[in-house]
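Before our next group meeting I need something from you. Please put the record directly below this note.
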Amino acid sequence: MIRLMPTLLLTAVIGSSALAIEEPKYEVIEKFETFEIRRYDPMIVAETEVKGDFDEVGNDAFDILAGYIFGKNEEDLKIEMTAPVNQTPVSEAIESGTPTTLLTTSSQNNSDGEAAYLITFVMPSEFTMETLPKPKDERVLLKEMPAKLMAAKSYSGSWSREKYLRHETALMEGLKESGYETVGEPIFARYNSPFTIPLLRRNEVLVEVRSATGEAN
């Protein structure tokens, strides 16, 4: 994914490395050689559904969601951007109400050949569902997400689907001997502006997990 938003908008949202950007809160439960297990706190997300290609689908979604946080809401309130930017394909799990916030590779194709995705921004932790302003754009929805146990594998470099799939495979292979089993599909998170050189980018593959023994973690 190369073209996401106009240059000025990208810079204002996630382009400045000098600014501290809030990320979802989590506790590291266990570390393995190439990945770790995290327990994420509950969070609220703003999401929108768009259709398109894996590498290009964020273009329209960024404009919609950035509009909301830049003041296109009933209080004309500007909301701070957080990281990462998350994306997930629309699937039966999502349609039935299962909460998901990130990108998986098993996208569901529509009859026209395009895939439908949910793109989400995590809302700053200072807000609740009661204090977040209502979006003016009906394409933006606010959702509460429960706490989750996640396996996470970080990597740098390009946002290409090919590179993502290599790291996804490595994470899934590593989990086989870890004592954890996956709950849902692998997911993808991007933390940087596309203007960040690939060497300095932080990307992650994540997947929700549970203990294979059934014990609480």
Notes: Residues 1-18, 92-112 have pLDDT under 50 and may be disordered. The first strand starts at residue 26 and ends at 31. The chain is about 20% helix and 30% strand.
